[in-house]
UniProtKB/TrEMBL annotation:
The keyword Membrane applies. Part of the protein translocation apparatus. Forms a complex with SecD. This is Protein-export membrane protein SecF. The gene is secF. It is found in: Cell membrane. Belongs to the SecD/SecF family. SecF subfamily. One of its GO terms (biological process) is intracellular protein transmembrane transport. It is a multi-pass membrane protein. InterPro entries: SecD/SecF_arch_bac, SecD/SecF_CS, SecD/SecF_export, SecD_SecF_C, SecF_arc. The lineage of its organism: Archaea, Methanobacteriati, Methanobacteriota, Stenosarchaea group, Halobacteria.
Length: 288
């Protein structure tokens, strides 16, 4: 059995500015990416069919992708291959002027077997998007209130909130770069990241504020549990992402990718940014 040991970091070698510079710089770049995407497209991240409405068609064929795309009277918004099943998944946005019956006729005329066809109306998609994003906002607000109620001190509480905010923003920016659309699955992944982030940050804050021992000893004790827990989750998500990609399960692959990047960001934010804010609060005459 492989034993994993968390190395002890000598935080005294680094100033608060040095530790905070990296996570704050990454957060700033992520916000710029999201802001630029919003200016260019009108949305901070591209919404998927779940939110915009449209039709998803799954067909079985071994024909090349260019031939499949040209077989339909209306060009698909996106097309992806599932090699393990010799199938293609085509997406047609709402308002493209093509009906499900027409899509089935085009597929059958080209000799393709229609495996499944799912349609979401534009109105239903808009309502779902509002509900999903509202859920994320409410979850984040509730988390923030709970954290402030637990610690009742501004700096340790805001450290948790900032870390959780960054853990969400960074994966959203990477979703734009990697072409991952916002869907019910990726929204669920963002909600899970709030939970992961709060878990690791509260673990750190509890050890520093409420356990015996000096600051660096308490930080290392928290890291022994927190880093091991987060790295285990990252490894599990990497396996899930690779497996889902090989079998063409796009939803699970997207969820796994978002969680891998979010959990990696959580390691950085918790043990660099959060530690910096706590150390400043403890040693710069701010703690009471």
């Amino acid at each position: 059995m492989v034993e994993f040991t968390v190395p002890e970091v000598d935080y005294t070698r680094y100033t608060n500015r040095q530790l905070a510079a990296v996570p704050l710089a990454v957060l700033a770049v992520a916000l710029l990416v999201i802001g630029g995407w919003y200016v260019a497209t009108g949305a901070p991240v591209d919404p998927g069919v779940d939110f915009t409405g449209g039709t998803e068609l799954r067909i079985a064929t071994d024909a090349p992708q260019t031939e499949v795309s040209a077989a339909f009277s209306s060009p698909p918004e996106s097309i992806r291959s599932v090699p393990s099943e010799n199938t293609y998944v085509l997406t047609f946005q709402a308002g493209s002027g093509v009906s499900t019956s027409q899509l089935e006729q085009d597929a059958e005329a080209a000799g393709y077997e229609v495996r499944s066809i799912d349609t979401v109306s534009a109105n239903f998609g808009a309502d779902t998007q509002l509900l999903a994003l509202g859920g994320v906002a409410v979850a984040f607000l509730g988390m923030s209130i709970l954290v402030f109620a637990m610690f009742r001190t501004f700096v340790p509480s805001i450290a948790v909130v900032i870390s959780a905010f960054s853990d969400i923003v960074i994966p959203v920016a990477l979703m734009n770069i990697l072409g991952i659309e916002l869907s019910l699955g990726t929204v669920a992944a963002l909600l899970m990241l709030i939970g992961y982030s709060v878990d690791s940050d509260i673990l750190l804050n509890n050890h520093v504020l409420r356990r015996s021992g000096d600051f660096y000893e308490s930080t290392y004790r928290a890291m022994q549990t927190g880093v091991t827990m987060t790295l285990t989750s990252i490894a599990a998500m990497i396996v899930m992402t690779i497996t889902a990609t090989l079998f063409g399960i796009q939803l699970l692959a997207a969820i796994g990718t978002v969680l891998v990047f979010g959990l990696t960001a959580d390691l950085m934010n918790t043990y660099m940014l959060n530690v910096t804010l706590l150390r400043w609060w403890k040693f710069e005459g701010v703690a009471r």
